Amino acid sequence: MHRFYLFFFAIILLPYTLSAQTKKPLDEVDVQRWRKIEREQISNDGQWVAWVQAPVTEGDPALYLWNARTGATTVFPRSTEAAFSEDCKLLVFKIKPGLDTLKAQRRRKVKDENLPKDTLGIYTLSNAKLEKKPNLKSFIVPEKWSGWLFYQSDCENLPPAKKDSTLKTAQDSTKAVKPAPKKNGKKQKKENKENGYRLIVCNTATGSADTIAFVENYLPAEKGKYLLLNTTGKGDTLTFNANPQTMLTGVYLLDLEKYQVRPLLRGKGKYRQLSLNESGTKAAFLADTDTTKARIRPWELCYWGATQDSARSIAGIQNDFLAPRDSGTAAWGVSEFAKPVFSQDDSKLYFGIAPPPVLNDTTLLPEEIVNVEVWNWTDKRLYTQQEMQMENDKKRSYPVLWRIPENRFVMLGSPQVPELRFQEQRNAELALGFTEEPYAFYLTSEGTAHKNLYAVDLRTGDQTLIVRDLRCNPRLSPDAKYIYWWSDPDSAWFAWNAASGAIARMTDNGTVHFFDEENDQPDYPNEYGMAGWLKSDASALIYDQFDIWKTDPEGKRSPERLTGGREENITYRYLKLDPEEHWIDPNAVMLLHQFNHKTKAEGYAWLDLKTARLTPWLNGDFAYSRLPLKAKNAGKLVFSKGNFQTFPDLIFASLSTSPTTRNQKPETPQTISHANPQQSEYRWGNIELVEWTSLSGEKLSGLLVKPENFDPAKQYPMIVNFYEKLSDGLHQHRAPDFHRSQINWTFYASRGYLVFAPDIKYRTGYPGESAYDAIVSGVTALIGKGFVDPKRIGLQGHSWGGYQSAYLVTRTNLFACAEAGAPVANMTSAYGGIRWES
Q1: Among 30-34, 181-185, 489-493, whose mean pLDDT is lowest?
Q2: How far apart are CA 8 and CA 354, in angstroms?
Q3: Residues whose CB falls within 8 Å of the CB of residue 799, separated by 6 or more in sequence, listed in order
């Protein structure tokens, strides 16, 4: 009988034994099989999910499309950059040429302009029909309206499209525009970056299309069915509702509901920075129609409203606010680098102005031009930083507001207050202004500059000083009732009331600390951040290490805790599911991410703000995505979870809201992607949390990766890899990959190595000694367990860890070999971040 049971169990275990024996160790070539998931998105109705699986090294990506109704997955090879149409009828994406094909042609010295081009893929979701448009340059799918698609092609030969009798040109505009023959010996006009490319305006409902030649820029309105574009001109004649228009150089507005084209401004010149309001009934752009060869170009701001026949110039050299600031100085001008922006309520138009650029002396010969770098120890910024910022400084502009109903300009920015932050909708009459310039010298000693904060009145341009010489991170509340900031030296949140001008302290660190409690750097501790503001700026939801607190911007009410994470050693953080959310509804049910500091497990929970009820949803020994996607018009959610053994594939869940408990209760989630099934073919390994006592008597923790089928009776070679504190990543998946100067834990575990990652607690002024204390004590503790070969221990660190690797080999012979990747070789060379050219 005993023999029977032994034989029975031997038969059962045989497949597992054979499987373990047939698994392969990872090799360099195997890494090329691994794929990463990126560019995830979900259709507005929640029926479709698309994502890209791209190689972690080199190769062609693939676009995956999953149908929630049928569970079927469609794969589009070499495809990426997908977008769903607003009505969920189309998936539009870019198809790339094969990488092998491109390489082969480059080896044959084929010119770049003759290499294969991208292709536009238009996939109809209802019937699985794929249409391809060759030689793609760019495309736009409107996010908030449907029925139209816009794309550019840069090839001379396009296949004909179906003709639309309601949207037509005098010639067959859906065919390629044949280049005009040479006239008077002049070269024919070619499609390129300077002249523009052909734009195809496609009616996705009828399948018809029209072509406009030599379009430089095009922009659909956010909500209205309008398209703004500028062309360098070809002479095409478009007929919209029997209204012929010759498409000469200029700016045009296409009304796609009425099938009409309206020329806003035509004439020889350059046009830049196209802008539309949300509905498409107002437009703004920059124009340079000056025919002289002036080196400083006289850009003008042009505006068009629905009641106007054409656009008119509203700002240029004729305006008083652009006059010279002082005697002997040149006039300012409209900046060509600042895009005009409309407020959401259409009452304001923001644009930029700038001082005249410094011009080179064109009378000098090249050998007469002095080209030297002058370093001065009194400069507020290191020369390397000045050099890096040079191009940005040349393009710097200062905002001006045009109040449209009043036809009045308000100067907002200046060299004295160069930085402004506006409300997201830009409707408010208050902006935040600040300057770092007087305190820029702090950058080299503290790593950040102090600031002067200002409240800027958008009705008058008046600037009210709020605080001076403060190291802080200022922001504007959603309704612009408050300017608020985290003060580094106070380690607290403050708010300035726009109505009263009073400053209130929102947190006092009395009950709990709102600063980083584990800060071990010789600097002020950072903030934990905030979830957002409640409607009407009633309260700010601020984080401590574990919980979410409702705080009073007036400083009158004590902070109210909304979660109970500190007692459970769990951190809760808000996950914003609506990307357009400006504030949080006080009756909302919020999705929270949770992290257990003891087990390192993650998960999701729902917080009902009205009832203060917290309901756990998903949790376990996994790391959960902190960027889940929710369908705009449906209770469908896409997220990922993974751990060391489990790749973080995409998961789809349906949500429903219970009217009685107000807590969202999901159906059973399902995994919809399978990016790396080949993982089962390889030895993988396991990871665990280990603890020991440091040389200074502190309890420390770290991560230990063990090979698959680990035998504690054997001795294994071990690599010690570290960077500050890594133990919170216990459940992170680490797919095989090549890093420029960092080892891959999975790769080494697969090949029979132990990998040890100790956490390091730093003492101010002694980073090397702190690393020695933590690492040597951790390694000796593991040697004491008997499974580490003490003669085969390697050390590897990157960057800051590289510095400590270099330090450790001067202090101990514990390691058989060591590698310092991109190390900070000495503190002098690191001063001011000069090694980064900053």
Answers
A1: 181-185
A2: 85
A3: 723, 741, 821, 822, 823, 824
Q: Where are the alpha helices (DSSP H) in 171-313?
A: none
Query: How far apart are alpha carbons 408 and 403 in whole angstroms?
Result: 5
State the alpha helices, DSSP H only, in 73-143: 99-107
Structure tokens at 591: 């999705």
Please, what is the angle between helix 800-808 and helix 767-783, to 10°?
Answer: 70
Phi-psi region of 185 (alpha: psi -120 to 50; beta: other; left: phi over 0): left
Cα(143)–Cα(223) distance, integer angstroms:
8
| Residue whose structure tokens are 């859906």 | 174
The helix (H) or strand (E) run that includes residue 637 is: strand 636-642
**646 and 622 Cβ atoms separated by less than 8 Å:** yes
Q: Are strands 35-42 and 48-55 parallel, antiparallel or unpaired?
A: antiparallel
**For 389-407, how does the pLDDT look when each residue is reduced to its tens digit (9 = 90+)?**
889 999 999 999 999 999 9
- The span from the CA of 240 to the CA of 223, in Å, is 21
Report, in angstroms and rounded to the nearest whole number, the Rg of the chain calculated over CA atoms.
31
Task: Convert the pLDDT of each residue in 549-595 to its tens digit.
Answer: 999 999 999 999 999 999 999 999 999 999 999 999 999 999 999 99
Pairing outcome for strands 602-608 and 613-620: antiparallel
pTM for this prediction: 0.91
Q: How far apart are CA 587 and CA 576, in angstroms?
A: 15
Task: Tell me how far apart the alpha carbons of residues 719 and 23 are, in angstroms, rounded to a whole number.
Answer: 23
How is residue 196 annotated by DSSP? B
Q: How distant is the alpha carbon of residue 311 from its chain centre?
A: 35
Three-state DSSP at 278 gives coil
SS3 362: coil
Compute the C-alpha angle 30/33/34, nearest 5°.
110
- Indicate the average pLDDT of the chain: 90
DSSP 216: E
Enter the tokens of residue 126.
């209802």
**Are 442 and 452 contacting, i.e. CB atoms less than 8 angstroms apart?**
no
| pLDDT-above-70 percentage for the chain | 89
Which strand ranges, in their side-by-side order, compose the sheet holding 148-153? 79-84, 90-95, 118-124, 129-140, 148-153, 197-203, 209-220, 226-231, 250-255, 260-266
Whether residue 781 has pLDDT greater than 80: yes
Burial of residue 372 (number of CB atoms within 10 Å: 0-12, 13-18, 19+): exposed
Mean pLDDT score, 129-155? 94
Contact 175, 61 (CB under 8 A): no
Q: Which CB contacts under 8 angstroms, 24+ apart, belong to 110-117?
A: 117/154, 117/155
For the beta carbon of residue 33, count every other beta carbon within 10 angstroms. Answer: 18
